[in-house]
Amino acid sequence: MSEKSSLLGNSPAFSAAVEAGQPPESGEELITKGRRWSKQDRIWNFLIVLCSTAAILTIAYFPPGSTRSVRPSHPAEVEVERVGRLPAMGWNTWNSFWCDIDETLVLEHAQLMKTLGLADAGYNHVNIDDCYSEKKRDADGNIVASAIKFPSGMKNLTDQIHAMGFKAGIYSDSGWFTCQMYPGSFQNEARDAKLFQDWGFDYLKYDSCTVPFDGLLKEGQVGKFKRMANAIQELAKTSGKPPLQFSLCQWGWEQPWLWAREFGQSWRTTGDIEANWRSVANIINRNSFIAWASDFYGHNDLDMLEIGNGELTYEESKTHFTVWALLKSPLLIGTDLRRATNQTIEILTNREIIAINQDPVVGTGVTPFRWGVNPDWTFDNTHPAQYWSGKSENGTIIMLINTLDEPQNMTFKLVESPWIRAGRQYTVRDLWTHTDNGTAVRNFTAKAVPPHGVAALLLKDAGDEPEGIYPPCVELEWCTHRNGTRYDQMESEL
Ligand code: GAL
Question: Is 173 a catalytic residue?
Fold first, then answer.
């Protein structure tokens, strides 16, 4: 029995009627505890209950002595600022330097980000990854910055990073230790979040190594991240400062795209990237199935960029950058900027591509509309989906990836993309050559896309397509005249 019905008495018909805000139906006699009620009795009864309910509610809303006129919906609730609406951009120590890091290297890179034009292009985070601390916490239980690598202390470092116009990022782990066996934050979440904030960090990457036993976790893998997410929110409430931007690094193991949006602003979807095409193609394939999960404030993280590293060719690097940007992944540079070539910088600062990643109006990324080499929905780490599209502030984005080892002409019907209007023509802008490539009517072919290369196009509506084009529908299936004639059944006549 509900609380309400017990308060009003035992008659279901009576309580149902009162719940519905009506007096009980007249003409029907209600029997309670063997007593027959007259119609007058019932009306009185109804009025008494109505008045006492009103009185109880009034007292609850306006207790004696209360002066408030409007009751706040959640009196104890403090609004926490939202961070990370758009994918994070910046530089991170890990891909190039692993544990070989120190404050000089970090500051040097912050400076290079300015000199090389990366800061101007939007890269605004300088992030430290694993290995920055001593191996043991101090006597009070706090993480200690390595005296050798960061002798000036973390606060000093973040002050300098901030003075250069950047935000600062730090790293920890949801288990006992980090992947390189430095202290992790399990059971120290609130303490560490506070320390990171006191050190001046704005961003926290949170890893998944050294998992505590199930008997301790009880909440499963998700619970490890929830602990830190809660600590960050609590700290933001008590400190009044913005929450640390929270970047979950769970390698896609427990499908974080299904749950991590509740906790943080990005989540790794795959294992660690390597600086070769095999790894990039593998990440593209896996993400093709979950690309829908990115939107404002929550992004699939395809891992840090390898542009400028290892064996990636110029064309592969462009593809790598395009996919990451257009799927709305964080763009965290992972190369040694002291040795970066002009080509590396040219790729990383392609503003037309970055503009889509940082689109302030459309939060979602591109998704595949056709796989190409393979039948649609094929899981193939070597030949992932090739034909993708998505919306943007300025038009429809088309991304074509040549997964083959030789050049390929890549043709598509415009209406294969759900974001294209049938019966319209579109201007085509090439986001890598930075040229306008004419107007597409119904189809477009990107000619000779290089092996492992990419075409990134912005299509803008240019009005109705020319009159009299046949067939009357690009997609013939079920294309029907108003008189009922089906064009797909008279294909031979067309
Ligand atoms: C891995 C993570 C890498 C890097 C490394 C540090 O788990 O995926 O991006 O942070 O740990 O040990």
Answer: no
- pLDDT tens, position by position, 278-315: 999 999 999 999 999 999 999 999 999 999 999 999 99
Asked if the structure places residue 50 within a domain, the reply is no
Which amino acid would we find at residue 125?
Answer: H
Q: Best substitution site from 100, 101, 129, 206 to test ligand 1's pocket, by max atoms within 8 Å of Cβ?
A: 129
Q: Are 277 and 65 in contact (CB under 8 A)?
A: no
| CA neighbor of 392 nearest in space, from 372, 366, 427 | 366
389-415 pLDDT per residue, tens: 999 999 999 999 999 999 999 999 999
Atom of ligand 1 nearest to the CA of 207: 7
Q: What is the reported pLDDT for 221?
A: 86
CA 359 to ligand 1 center in whole angstroms: 28
Atom of ligand 1 nearest to the CA of 205: 10
- Residue 5 burial class via C-beta count within 10 angstroms: exposed 0-12, middle 13-18, buried 19 and up: middle
DSSP 219-280: SHHHHHHHHHHHHHHHHHHHH-SPPPEEEE--TTTT-GGGTGGGT-SEEE-SS---SSHHHH
Rounded CA separation 275/305 (Å): 9
To the query of whether residue 461 is one of the catalytic residues in this protein, the response is: no
Q: Determine the Cα–Cα distance for residues 143 and 145; give it in Å rounded to an integer.
A: 7
Residues 207, 130 contacting (CB under 8 angstroms): yes
395 shares a domain with 319: no
Q: Indicate whether residue 91 lines ligand 1 (CB < 6 A).
A: no
CA distance linking residue 380 with residue 174, whole number of Å: 31
- How many angstroms separate the Cα of 47 from the Cα of each of 12, 43, 53, 148, 461? 17, 6, 10, 79, 65
- For residue 197, the one-letter residue type is Q
**In total, how many domains does the chain have?**
2
- Give the structural domain span for 104: 89-361
Is residue 193 a part of any domain in this protein?
Answer: yes
Instruction: Evaluate: CB of 192 within 6 angstroms of ligand 1.
Output: no
**Which residue among the candidates 102, 272, 336, 380 is catalytic per the annotation?**
272
- Residue 107 CA to residue 151 CA, distance in Å, equals 13
| Alpha-carbon distances of 282 from 248, 312, 322, rounded to whole Å | 20, 14, 15
Q: Residue of the nearest CA to atom 11 in ligand 1?
A: 179
296 and 443 part of one domain: no
CATH number for the domain including 413? 2.60.40.1180
Q: Which of 45-49, 282-286, 483-487 has the lowest mean pLDDT?
A: 45-49
